[in-house]
Amino acid sequence: MSEDPENREAVDDTLEDAFGVNLRALRTLADLVIRPNAVFKSYAANDRVTYTPSIRLFVGLIAVQILISVIWGGYGGILLSQWQQPNVNVEALESLFGAPLEVVAEHYGNAAPFLHATVVGLFTALSAFLVGAFNRSLGWVARLNITFAVLSGGTIVGLLVMIIAALTDNLASISWAPFIIFFAYWLFFVRGAPGVLAESRKGAVLKGALFSVVTMLYVMLAGLVMALIAFIYAWFMIQNSGGA
Questions:
Q1: Residue 202's domain spans which residues?
Q2: Is 48 contained in some domain?
Q3: Angle, to 10 degrees, between the axis of helix 23-34 and the axis of helix 140-167?
C-alpha cells in the first residue's frame, strides 16, 4: 500500500520542526544525483509533494557555496587572491578605485554574496524557455523546476570542486570549474530528459549539449553583471569614505 502523501508531508514537517532538517530537500538532492529522471518526471507532472521545488534547492546550495567561500576569506578573499597574480597591474587597479586592493576586495566581498543567487538565478531562469521548446506541453512551473533541477545538479558538482580545492589548498584548481560544471549540466540533463524532454537517447544527448551551452552563457553573463554591480558598489563606498 502506498504511503499517503499528506501523512508523509506531515511527518517531514514534524521532523523539520524538531531537528531543523528538511527531509524532503535531502531526498530531492539524493534522487537528483541517483535518479534524476524520476525527479524530472515528478516536476513535469506538477507533483508538489514528493520533491522540494528546485528553485528553493538551488538557493540553498548557493548559500552553502557562499559559506564554503569563507575558507578563502569570502568573495573578497577569492578576488584578492586573483589580483595577486604576477600579470595583474596593481597600481592601475588601485588608481582606478582610489584605494588599496584590500579595501576594494572587502567592499566587493560585502556585495557579491547578496547578488549571487539573485543575479545568477534570474539569468539562468531564462533556460526555462529552452526547456519549454523541448516540451511545449510543460507548464511554466514545471519548466522552471526542471531548469533549476539541472542547475542544482551543476551547483552540487561546483561545491565538490570548491571542497576539493579547499582540502588541497589549491585555489587555482577552481579555474577548471566552468568546464566541469558544463559537463555536469549536460550529464544531469541527459540522465533526466528521457520521456520528459527527449524521446531518444540521441535526442537527450543533443538537447543536453544545447541546454548546457546556452545555460553556461547565461551563467557567464550573470557573473559579469554580478561583478560589475559589486565593483560599482565598491567604488561608491570608497568614494563616500574618502578612499579609506
A1: 53-240
A2: no
A3: 80
